[in-house]
Amino acid sequence: MISPLKKSLLLLFLCLALPSCAQNDTAHFTLTGSANLEPECFSRAFPLDAGFIAARQNTQSLSLFFQSVPGKFDQADLIYFEIYQPEQVRAQLGSPTPLSAPGANDAIIGGKVGLLATCPDLLHSFYLDGEVTFTTLDQGKNAKITGSITNARIRNARTHELVAEGLSGSWDFTTRQGQPYQDFYAIP
User: Fold this and answer.
1) How far apart are CA 148 and CA 165, in angstroms?
2) 8, 32, 45, 113: most buried, per Cβ within 10 A?
3) Strand 96-100 versus strand 109-115 pairing type
4) Residue 101 and residue 33: Cα distance in Å, rounded?
C-alpha cells in the first residue's frame, strides 16, 4: 500500500512531468477581415489556437512561435514574432510597439504569418503590419511572456501589398527548456 505522502509526491511528479498539468499556455488569433489573396486558405487557417508555443533565445534576439500543431514549423500554420530589441520592448511594457517590415534597419519587432499546414502549396510569404503590445517579457528559465496584437494587417512579403486586415490575438505562456522548445545544433 502506498502512503499518503508517497501518493502526493507521485501526483506532484506526474503534474510536473505532463505539460497539460504543469502549463496553462494559451495563444489565440482571429482574422475578422476578408483576405484579398487566397481567401479560402485564410478562412480555413483562422481562428488559430496554438497547439505549440515556444520562445527561443537567439544571439541578439528572441523568437516566438505560435504554431497550430506541434512539430516542424514548416508543417503548421503559425504566427511568428522576432523581437530584435528585447531590452527596448521590456522598457516599454504595456505600450504598443510597431511591427517592422522585413529588412528594416531599425526593427524592434517583426512578425510573420505562415499557412504551411492549411495551404502547403501556397507560393506567398506574409508579414504583419501593425502594433504589438507585450505586458510581460521575462527572461531566463520559466520566463512569463504575455501580450497581444490588435487589428493588424497581413501583407505580401515580396510586394508589400495588403492581403488581409483584422488580425488580432493574445498569448500568455511560460517558456520551457529543452527540445522541442529550444534548438540545439551539433557541431560536425
Assistant:
1) 16
2) 113
3) parallel
4) 20
Which cell numbers hold the place of 50? Answer: 496554438
Tens of pLDDT, residues 112-167: 999 999 999 988 999 999 999 999 999 888 889 999 999 999 999 999 999 999 99
Percent of the chain at pLDDT > 70 equals: 81
Tell me how far the alpha carbon of residue 181 is from its chain's centroid: 12
Residues 43, 4: Cα–Cα separation, whole Å? 51
Give the DSSP letter string of 27-74.
EEEEE-SPBSSSHHHHHHH-SEE-SEEEEEE-SS-EEEEEESSSS-GG
Three-state DSSP state, 94: coil
Spatial CA neighbour of 73 closest among 133, 125, 34, 21: 125
Q: Residue with C-alpha cell 483562422?
A: 46
pLDDT of residue 5: 41
Give CA–CA dist 131/126, Å, rounded: 16
C-alpha cell at 128: 504583419
CA distance linking residue 130 with residue 96, whole number of Å: 9
